UniProtKB/TrEMBL annotation:
It holds the Pfam family DEP. GO terms for molecular function: GTPase activator activity; guanyl-nucleotide exchange factor activity. It comes from Sinocyclocheilus anshuiensis. Residues 24-107, 133-207 form the DEP domain. One of its GO terms (cellular component) is plasma membrane. The lineage of its organism: Eukaryota, Metazoa, Chordata, Craniata, Vertebrata. This is DEP domain-containing mTOR-interacting protein-like.
Length: 397
């Protein structure tokens, strides 16, 4: 199939958000077990195995900087309760209360609802971990249509591996599994043009199951996928604010400063496209996003060939950017190649020397010079907190 279509992309984005809740909840469960916050507890001569005290977990979230205050911590835990990740041990409370009440993760008592979606996520996570933990040649740097992609799977080789590992009994069923993984946003065609088919096309894991999720991400109701509107909004540099609203400065190409009401500082190309690392106390807003900075900072688009021409005016720079609590602090736009549209003066990107008008050539070892900003943004969003970037900029003589 040539192109998975907008409908399938939207469906995959919705399922990916659901998967993020499952993965984030599982990471929290394992952390709480390791910290011995989850344990057997007694109340009125009865023992409740593998549970935690609501009031204690609120303290733990604040102590570990997963929430800035008790109200935010309650909202985080309520999100997990609403998604059936956890529940009151006697199912007497549908709300998460900051009291000495016992709650338990459903995975610890075998009551987790294993619907078809959850089964696919868990299957995808197991396959991902299996591939990452074993020595194999499946994940390699390869080219498709003249573009180089890192850590790719060839569909037919992936199917061979699934059969060898006993994951699926027949080739047809293995191909169906690949299609389900794609439809649930776990894998994708490298340029997002094809569905999963048994052949020589290249695919990558869209989800990084090992990325450490911040619990505050659960409160972000907006999508993490990159929107279709080219003039995507973005917000930069948090200002001190009073009252319930949070203000941000948005830097326009003319250096004019505009104040924007927003949920948080975005480090990517839109208020939807987040870094995966948020401020500790986001202000949830139901107001529509404000379009800012629609005009490109470039005087003209430059081709990859021109950027890399021997003796040309462009030089290569590499950056290692470690995301902070609210992101990486830059915005990408354009395509073939995309470029840095704005840099937060107080963010991690500015600290290492990133500037506007630099052209993005590689992200975490992947050649991205022929990709658009949506694809590049998603690569960063689904990757590790530390981002390695290679850019080209015009030399100053």
């Amino acid at each position: 199939m040539d192109g998975i279509g907008n409908t399938m992309q939207k469906k995959a984005a919705e399922l990916e958000r659901m998967a993020e809740v499952l993965v984030t909840g599982e990471q929290l469960r394992l952390r709480l077990h390791e910290a011995k916050v989850i344990k057997d507890r007694r109340h009125h001569l009865r023992t409740y195995p593998n549970c935690f005290v609501a009031k204690e977990i609120i303290d733990w979230l604040i102590e570990h900087k997963e929430a800035s205050d008790r109200d935010t911590a309650i909202k985080i835990m309520q999100k997990l309760l609403d998604q059936s990740i956890l529940h009151h041990v006697c199912d007497e409370h549908k709300e998460f209360k900051d009291m000495k009440l016992f709650y338990r993760f459903r995975k610890d008592d075998g009551t987790f609802p294993l619907d078809s979606k959850a089964k696919v996520f868990m299957r995808g996570q197991r396959i991902y971990e299996k591939l990452m933990n074993t020595e194999n040649t499946l994940l390699q740097t390869r080219e498709e249509e003249g573009v180089t992609f890192e850590r790719t799977l060839v569909a037919l080789e992936f199917i061979d591996w699934l059969l060898q590992e006993g994951e699926m009994p027949t080739r047809e069923e293995a191909e169906q599994l690949g299609r389900r993984l794609l439809e649930h946003g776990i894998i994708q065609h490298v340029s997002n043009k094809h569905h999963f088919v048994d052949g020589g096309l290249l695919y990558q894991f869209r989800m990084n199951f090992r990325r450490r999720r911040r619990l505050i991400e659960l409160l972000n109701e907006r999508c993490r996928s990159i929107p279709e509107n080219h003039d995507s909004p973005f917000c930069l540099r948090k200002q001190g604010s009073e009252g319930g609203n949070t203000s941000f400065l948005s830097v326009s190409p003319t250096k004019e400063i505009k104040v924007v009401s927003a949920v948080r500082r975005s480090s990517m190309s839109s208020s939807c496209g987040s870094s995966g690392y948020y401020s500790s106390s986001p202000t949830l807003s139901s107001s529509p996003p404000v379009l800012c900075n629609p005009k490109s900072v470039l005087k003209r688009q430059v081709s990859p060939e021109e950027l890399q021409a021997p003796g040309g005016p462009y030089i290569k720079k590499t950056f290692t950017i470690v995301g902070d609590a609210v992101g990486w602090g830059f915005v990408v736009r354009g395509s073939k190649p995309c470029y840095i549209q704005a840099v937060d003066p107080g963010g991690p990107a500015a600290a290492v020397g990133m500037k506007v008008c630099q052209f993005v050539m590689a992200v975490n070892g992947m050649n991205v010079q022929n990709l658009d900003y949506r694809t590049v943004s998603n690569l960063i969003l689904t990757g590790p907190r530390t981002v390695f970037m290679e850019v080209m900029e015009k030399a100053e003589y």
